[in-house]
Amino acid sequence: MDVVVLGASGTLGKAIVQEALKRKHEVTAAVRHPDSLQIEHERLQIATVDILNPSSVAAVVGGHGEVISAFGPDSGRENDLLGAADSLLEGMRIAGVERLMIVGGAGSLKTESGEWLMDTAEFPEELRPLAAAHANAYEIYRGSALDYTYISPPAVIVPGRRTGMFRIGLDRLIVDENGESSISVEDFAVAVIDELEEGNFSRERFTVAY
């Protein structure tokens, strides 16, 4: 499969690129600064993109079948997520590409009490603007005609081991018997590429955790 990964220089983006390559996919890693991505592979191409510019997006994704966005904004520019959503939708329309997978939005998963995770007392205050921006961007994708899938991590996601073992849910935060909600970056990337290959969640959101 031929896939473009936007935001490929971030922690999640790199892991997604590496998982896709591991599974023999052809990957175009699209980043703002190509020098920031220190990965070489025979099935990897690196492209420059401005995700806030629809024409730039169209130029990168045109001719490809699938697009994954792992874009994360700089601190203080959280609302770039909304601009990126509008730009992605327009750029993909121009390019005639219909399948988009977006990573983000843990804060808008519902807890057992029915409230959003970002509205709980335990949620870090400094992350609320980012969580709110992700939630608003999600609504932009939901309102589009695109074949999107929104993939939300659990409350905690950190580098660790690739086990391939995790649980899948929809809009509710997944917690274990100790009330914890976590996954490794590597296993989250497995879930993303699983969806790339299987396409089980067209025009839906899902989440994964141990």
How would you characterize the overall build of this protein?
This protein has 5 helices and 10 strands; from the N terminus they run βαββαβαβαββββαβ. It is an alpha/beta fold and 210 residues long. The protein has an 8-stranded mixed beta sheet, with helices on both faces. Strands 7-9 form a two-stranded parallel ribbon. Helix 3 runs parallel beside helix 4. The protein is globular and about 45 Å long. The model has no long low-confidence stretch (mean pLDDT 96).
Structural descriptors:
31% helix; 8-stranded mixed β-sheet; two-stranded parallel ribbon; 210 residues
Helix count equals 5
Q: Which range does the strand content fall in?
A: 15-25%
Sheet with the most strands, sense and barrel status: 8 strands, mixed
Mean pLDDT: 96
Uncertain ranges: none
Run of helices and strands: EHEEHEHEHEEEEHE
Give the CA-CA distance, first to last residue.
28 Å
Spatial strand arrangement across the major sheet: 3-2-1-4-5-6-10-8
Overall morphology: globular
Oligomerization state:
single chain
DSSP strand count: 10
The assigned structural class equals alpha/beta
Radius of gyration: 16 Å
Residues in helix, %: 25-40%
